């Protein structure tokens, strides 16, 4: 029986597509453990490059080659590395921090609330016979889960996703809209598959016989380890007689094709 359809919160309605928040320069300084110089009451709501930042945005200066850009930046708040702390800048507040890039990573989840979801199976989704669905799983519009597939706890499956018969999707993984996980595929925990990616399709294998190219039956699996990210419209073939294996922590860009039996 289908559970209640996942719902979206008001955070999803912001102009950026994410729930944008605001924070003062003083709060930023406390969050990243930096040395605040200037007006701690300045409020920012976004992060932007030095050359395009406005008074309501934060930017950062981590390399000397960008010092001249920082001297003209419109950013309201600027994160600066210690060796560049004396750079003249029109920013109303500067925050000296050892590693500005790391500080930005800390700030991103504070400024931008990610898309929200509620566990449940949308009424238009289809679950095959014997499919096992864990707790706190979200299955959105028109997704198809094949017979005997295993969807572990906390998985988020977007609209029009197809998970093939017997495929396994590990805990807290995210499958974005229109991605496909073929039968014979196994995904570890916290795997992210971006839109349009194809995991476990047949490899390019043929033998010339009786005057024609005959396809080789692929019987190997496609196995992705924990924390693997696969970019949009990328494809990873299943193995022919062995497995295709993508090791834990691998990050794959958009539009990448990985052939059968490859091991990364």
Task: Please give a structural write-up.
With 264 residues, the chain is mainly β. It is 9% helix and 31% strand. It is built from three helices and 31 strands. It has helices at 25-32, 67-70, 100-111; strands at residues 19-20, 23-24, 35-38, 43-44, 46-47, 57-61, 77-80, 93-96, 112-113, 120-121, 126-127, 132-133, 138-139, 144-145, 150-151, 156-157, 162-163, 168-169, 174-175, 180-181, 185-187, 192-193, 198-201, 206-209, 212-215, 222-224, 229-230, 235-237, 244-246, 251-252, 257-258. The strands form seven sheets. Strands 10-13-16-19-22-27-30 form a seven-stranded parallel sheet, with no helix packed on it. A seven-stranded parallel sheet has the order 11-14-17-20-23-28-31, with no helix packed on it. Helix 2 links the parallel strand 6 and strand 7 (77-80). The longest helix is centred in the middle third of the chain and has 12 residues, at 100-111.
């Amino acid at each position: 029986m289908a559970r209640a359809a996942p719902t979206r919160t008001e955070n999803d309605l912001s102009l950026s597509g994410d729930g944008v928040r605001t924070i003062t320069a003083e709060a930023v300084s406390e969050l990243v453990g930096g040395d605040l110089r200037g007006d701690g009451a300045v409020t920012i709501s976004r992060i932007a490059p030095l050359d395009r930042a406005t008074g309501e945005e934060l930017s950062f200066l981590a390399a000397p080659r960008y010092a001249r850009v920082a001297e003209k930046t419109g950013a309201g708040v600027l994160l600066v590395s210690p060796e560049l702390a004396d750079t003249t800048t029109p920013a109303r507040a500067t925050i000296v921090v050892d590693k500005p890039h790391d500080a930005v990573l800390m700030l991103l989840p504070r400024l931008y609330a990610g898309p929200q979801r509620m566990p449940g199976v949308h009424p238009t989704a289809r679950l095959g016979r014997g499919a096992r669905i864990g707790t706190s799983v979200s299955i959105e519009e028109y997704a198809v889960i094949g017979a005997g597939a295993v969807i572990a706890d906390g998985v988020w499956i977007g609209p029009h996703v197809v998970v093939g018969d017997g495929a396994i999707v590990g805990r807290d993984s995210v499958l974005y809209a229109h991605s496909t996980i073929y039968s014979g595929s196994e995904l570890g925990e916290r795997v992210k598959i971006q839109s349009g990616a194809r995991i476990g399709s047949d490899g390019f294998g043929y033998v010339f016989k009786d005057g024609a190219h005959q396809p080789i039956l692929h019987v190997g699996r496609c196995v992705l380890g924990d924390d693997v990210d696969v970019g949009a419209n990328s494809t990873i073939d299943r193995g022919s007689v062995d497995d295709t294996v993508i090791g834990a922590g691998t990050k794959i860009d958009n539009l990448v094709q990985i052939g059968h039996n490859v091991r990364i």
